Here is the input.
Amino acid sequence: MRNKLHVFIKQFGLPRIIIVSFLLSLCVLAIIYNLSIAGLLSDTLVRTGMHGVLVLAMVPGILCGIGLNFGLPLGILCGLIGGLISIELDLVGFTALFTAILVSIPIAVVVGWGYGILLNKVKGSEMMVATYAGFSAVSLMSIGWMILPFKSDEIAWIIGGGLRTTITLTERYDKILNNFAAINIGNLTIPTGLLLFLITMNFIVWIILRSKAGIAMKAVGDNPRFATASGLNVNKYRIFGAILSTVLGAIGIIVYSQSFGFIQLYQAPMFMGFSAVAAILIGGATVKKASISHVFIGTFLFQGLLVVALPVANKMLTEGSLAEITRIIVSNGIILYALTQVGGGE
Amino acid sequence: MAELIEVNKKDSVLDKIKKFALNNMVTIMFVIICYIGFYFSNLTFAFFINDLITRIARNSFLVLALIIPVLAGMGLNFAIVLGAMAGQVAIIMVTHWGIVGWQGFFLCVLISAPLAIIFGYLTGKLLNKTKGQEMITSLILGFFANGLYQLVFLIMVGSVIPMHNETLLLSSGVGLRVSIDLTGGLKYAIDDLLRWTFPKTLMMLGSASILIGGFNIYKYIKGVPNYLKGKIKLRMIGYVLAGISLVIYSIIITNSNSLLNNIKVPIITMVIIGLLCLFNIFISKAKIGQDFRTVGQDRHVATVSGIKSDKVRVTAIVISTLLAAWGQLFFLQNLGTLSTYGSHEQVGMFAIAALLIGGASVTKANIGHALLGTVLFHTLFIVSPIAGKNLFGDAQLGEYFRAFVAYGVIGLSLGMHAWKKQLQSRRRLS
Here is the structure.
């Protein structure tokens, strides 16, 4: 029995056990403090759908061998451009949402292709280079947001140059997926459209991973030497993975924005990659292994933790930002844990 | 390999220049950017020099703290953030106790040391578990530690840790204020001990340089056998000449009504930075420095030759973290305001960007790189907002450009390094 427990702890990972038990104790506290469980659950569902696609973007990156894709901001920036263009074209509703996605995909493909080439040149240090590629792209685009010639009043400052820091989507596609066929059961609201979209995206990725290219990509990520020996072009499939990840990042931020109700420009995308990385790691992925189920489990757990922590922390302490601090510690802690598992040492 | 050596022999002057330019591309590019920025900012030279001296005194220490882990092959230590935190903990304690001036500063040095050593030890242990991914680990570790730091100072101080201080705590009695003013306390604790005017500093520097050069040349002329070798002899003559010109220049400034006369240089801080440089040279020549380099070049060779490489790596990080803690003390006593939750956040990034701009890489860094990089990076800091405002009518643009440059330089340099490594290993295979 003890042996089994030991094996279980080793497989599941100590940090995950800590996180899950932390979440459970938070839930118990929530019940004690008489918080609305249904409300918390629907918040968690919304936030799972909101972050889900961004987390999904990690899967192709991990599988094709470039590791945790800290360069997610690159994809996010592409998505933001798409979102802005659809507003500039004065579109509303689902047309606007899908135009944003359709416009951002080709941009993301080009960016992802370049990104893939970059990562092929820096094998072994992908994560570090990707982090800084993301950071510098965000700062470069901050300059870009100030000088890009968007005209719409909703996007640009009326006086002075540059785009607004946050752009309200109320009259465009605010929560359009969330509200699509939403089901209300008492206090519990299920954002059907949002979850359906997430499931569809996951399904598409699942199919891609089972296609010929997907299997080849997994082989390349699993064992590059073996893949080369069996005649696969390693670099090509790594680029494929990078493109897929970037495109998913672009779609992810559009879904995120519609659920959030705002498009955030400038420095906002800087650290979004880290949350996504943390979420998939909490779901059970490692630097080398990830699956669709990890996306669901990880996003649900991570966002659930954040959703429950906020009101509970506010009940316990009226001041301070305990929930934010929890997020920082949990997300970076799990990334550190994953890095120690890469098989350091010799 | 044989081919390569032969090609090297035939290098013409032009090739040499080309090679120099290629190896120092980042630095050269920066000199150009800084010059353009300076030109468009329309700053007066005196104002610029004043700002630059302040910033050199403020930041060099932190940049110098990065050198030793690079020698030990651990790359750029983003975890100096932890050192900075140790420094800030000490400052918060000393400010709370109300000890001011250099005594307070000295107490900070004493308190931060054990903290920094503990943090450094833990960092080193962690980095030993993630060999090959040290930099990303130290980066994330910085973020993680920041979370713990906030937990302690935002939530626990006043609630779990008893502390009563109206000026430091938020009005609710729990958590520290976002910014703590050090004026009248630790501000300028070291800087104000001794300040010389700019020309006086130049004159002293020039005199010292003449003395060193002159002494060595005198000894040579007196006929101490084999005292100076050709190259060093030239260098000594150079010292004397540079010293003379500095002295002349300082006399010219003193006798003009240039604004440069109003600049006050914090001498003690500068001397301490100089001593740290000497310490770095000393340590890299000592036995432990050899160990660092052996471990840095090849861990297996080091292990075979009886060096405990894990222990050496931990030592390197401990020294770096300790220096970073003290560096943060110097930084904050000059700045005069402790931004409780922000001062340490960007320390790692800015120091690393500065070091890389000076021409260092992931595997190679020395004092020259650190000092040159500090000068160049902070020149950019001074000029870019003003140049951005003058060119585009918006200072924010300059700020973004600066951030882009800092991130871009780090990314580029990491990328170049990884690419070179990949090319090398491919060459070895074929």
